[in-house]
Amino acid sequence: MSALARTCLRLAACAALRNATLAGENVFDSRIEAVNLAKQAVAGAIAVYTEQEDGEALDSMNGPPFRPTVDLVLEISMQVKGPVAPDGSYSIGTPITDDELEASIDLIEAQAESALFRAYATNSVLFRQVARFSRRKNSIRFTDPQGGAKLATRYVTFGIEIADEDAPVEYAPTLTGFDRLPPTFAKIARAWPMGSVESEKALQIAAALAGTAPPAFRGVTATVQMVPSEPPEVGGPLEQETGERIILESGVGFLDAEDGSWLPQPGAPRVALWEIATYGELKFNSPIPSALIAAL
Fold first, then answer.
1. 43 has which bridge partners?
2. From 126's CA, which of 81, 155, 161, 247 has a CA 20 to 30 Å away?
3. Considering only the top CATH level, what class is 2-165?
């Protein structure tokens, strides 16, 4: 569920950047919202986006899980107050850049990079728990595609490696609160102050996950080609000379996750393994190992 890791990455970045740069509290998730210019004519702002994600499967034969790298984008801009109307309202816009605005943007970029990757403030450390590695950086000034004007905006992109973790609620639908989130997300969410923007969003996501758990396991029916063969010794390897994949009957044994060996359940009878030969059906009416499900 790297998609939820992207959400965690954005929220953790917002928390780490808020009040850590010249932009102050003007740090937003996915778009620049209301910047308060009641007492000043110009202010910096940061919008945090997660753009392209690329990932390589950890298993060369199949995936997920993947090793995903996400483009974390900081839109750093200077916002200025427009003419004030008689009722006191005013518009906010992004001006054409000049030397002072450009210097302010550069300062915010430097402060933001420090807050994310070098600072030891609580939220900075939490960010680096989801942002495992920063692989690359790109920084480019924004140019108006219509008029060609160079506006006071810069896009800073970091290639961040994140974790591809499942939400445990898929396997344990009775979980509540942050426990429904993927492990890293849950750990970070618990550390955010209750009532904060990030904590509230995480709670909303956790609540939504409560309705996504699949129904309880009812069994798997596999159509296979079967012929009996002698089972290996206890703890022995599963490989056969034919190289065919072996299907194990549920309730009598399981696959050892570390070395792929066949281990019988305590007290279970020694039963035959089945290799591909003629069509037939095997029904599994009790929980079976995920490795076996993948084999089917």
1. 79
2. 155
3. alpha beta
Strands 220-229 and 273-284: antiparallel
Q: Which of 124, 147, 142 is nearest to 32 (CA)?
A: 142
Residues contacting 61, CB < 8 A, separation 6+: none
Statement: the pTM of the whole predicted model exceeds 0.90 = no
**296 residues of the chain, pLDDT tens digit each:** 578 999 999 999 999 999 999 999 999 999 888 788 878 889 999 999 999 998 877 776 666 667 889 999 999 999 999 888 888 788 888 999 999 999 999 999 999 999 999 999 999 999 999 999 999 999 999 988 888 889 999 999 999 999 878 777 666 667 888 988 999 999 999 999 999 999 999 999 988 887 655 554 444 333 333 334 454 444 444 443 333 333 443 333 444 334 444 444 444 433 333 332 233 333 333 344 444 444 44
Omega of the bond leading into 64 within 30 degrees of 0 (cis): yes
The burial of 132, by beta-carbon neighbours within 10 Å (0-12 exposed, 13-18 middle, 19 or more buried), is given as: middle
Q: Evaluate whether 90 touches 177 at the Cβ level (below 8 Å).
A: no
Closest CA to 109 of 57, 133, 73: 73
Residue spans per domain, the chain = 2-165, 220-295
